[in-house]
Amino acid sequence: MSFADLGLSDELLRAVEDSGYTEPTPVQRQAIPSVLMNKDLIAIAQTGTGKTASFVLPMIDILSHGRARARMPRSLILEPTRELAAQVAENFEKYGKNSKLSMALLIGGVGFGDQDKALEKGVDVLIATPGRLMDQFGRGKILLSGVDILVIDEADRMLDMGFVPDIEAICSKLPPRRQTLLFSATMPPPIKKLADRFLTEPRHIEVARPAAANALITQRLVESTVRGKRDTLRALLREGVKNAIIFANRKTTVRDLAASLKRHGFAVGQIHGDMEQAERLRELDRFKADEINVLVASDVAARGLDIKGVSHVFNFDVPWHPDDYVHRIGRTGRAGATGTAITLYTAEDAEAIDQIEKLTKTNIDRTPLSGQAPAAPSGPSDEADDQPRSQPRRGRSRSAAKPAGDAPAKPRVQTAGAAPAKPRAQTAPEPVRAEQAPPLPVDANPEWNGPVPAFLQVRLHG
DNA sequence: AAAAAAG
């Protein structure tokens, strides 16, 4: 079975081929023909399954006939986070290169100017997060009465984030005769209700969860103590880590941990929801460009983000919810490459770990405290500044730079191009070569590894 | 309990 068997146009097949994909994933095989027949669709699938292309590809073909009118987008895609919205936009850019579709990315955290201009001209594809979409609608900048195709992506996450009332409000402004596609990793009752209300005789498809069963990810649990976590983490980072995303549960922890790792000489960046959008994207770019090899992140980066060649994921904190664990570790082991996921745990995390093992149906390798060589202190004065705060700091602490006296051996500011002081492994790290991997699933977006395309720069950095 | 998203 190839893409050519799914009923897609020749121009589109060429774009797919140029991207290096040869074989559709299961969700693409099932979804694409049915979307092309203008059927409503409920798909139980999560990122990493090729879900994005399963709606982007047929939509490009459907929309390539006809043209957009001012302020009346012809299709609408709702995404829970700004980064995911940007990622979907890049997919349209890549696969739509032979189709001349116009599009706009409507996300918060960026100025209104460029978005207003694009909307005024008229767009075939509107990709949005709910907040900014409602905002623009309220300002009278959009008429939703011309939307023929609606995609609700990551519906269960939208629910978690409290977007369901927004989605209902948006749906009620759309023409009742339209095609609606709903994607969700799970189908909790409120999402089922939403589907019953806004979809018409949908086709149901379901594909297996990928990350939990991903044999390419080696998982480990390493015991530590609340006070010893940073030492343990640094020791592990020095064990042959090419690059790593480190997840923490709180934004304050992300900030503090990133600052601490920086003081210890790591080439580190951070990403969380309190940062400005341009900054978030810049940190992602630096990580992708290998200017930094450690990215400390909140769960804003846990789902869906496709960054090629991430060798390690660390959980500095055991995630609150076992689903989040699956999403976090799924940032590695992508596109056929192997990866390692290491979770630090303390005595208090026993129950959360039980749940994770139950969900993933695996017994994860444990390294208990007693079995560890004591983490060698690596900085000259670790104790004073380096214990996690028992209380998350609030308010001004975010912008308060560390006083110099608090920072042992602070590395010099690295200018772009200068080799950052990356701590390297004593044992040679095993390079992860995604290029040698089997054919990429279409959702594993290699484009996240390149520079931000011009159309995104305009809207996101402008 | 946390984070995310509209300022």
Short description:
The chain is an alpha/beta fold and 462 residues long. Helices cover 34% and strands 14% of the residues.
Overall geometry comes to globular
Helix amount, in percent? 25-40%
The span between the termini is: 43 Å
CATH topology of the largest domain: Rossmann fold
The CATH class designation of the largest domain is Alpha Beta
Number of DSSP E strands: 14
Structure write-up:
This protein has 462 residues and is α/β, with parallel strands linked by helices. It has helices spanning 10-18, 26-36, 51-63, 82-95, 113-121, 130-138, 155-160, 164-172, 189-198, 229-237, 251-263, 277-288, 322-329, 350-360, 382-386, 454-461; strands at 41-44, 75-78, 103-106, 125-128, 149-152, 179-184, 203-206, 217-223, 244-247, 268-271, 294-297, 312-315, 339-345, 365-367. The protein folds into two domains: 3-208 and 454-461, P-loop containing nucleotide triphosphate hydrolases (Rossmann fold, 3-Layer(aba) Sandwich); 217-431, 3-Layer(aba) Sandwich (Rossmann fold). The protein is 34% helix and 14% strand. The strands form two sheets. A seven-stranded parallel beta sheet has the order 3-4-2-5-6-1-7. Strands 10-11-9-12-13-8-14 form a seven-stranded parallel beta sheet, sandwiched between helices. The model is unreliable at 375-462 (pLDDT under 50). The chain binds one DNA strand of 7 nucleotides through helix 6. It is an enzyme of class 3 (hydrolase). Its EC number is 3.6.4.13. Keywords: ATP-binding, Cytoplasm, Helicase, Hydrolase, Nucleotide-binding.
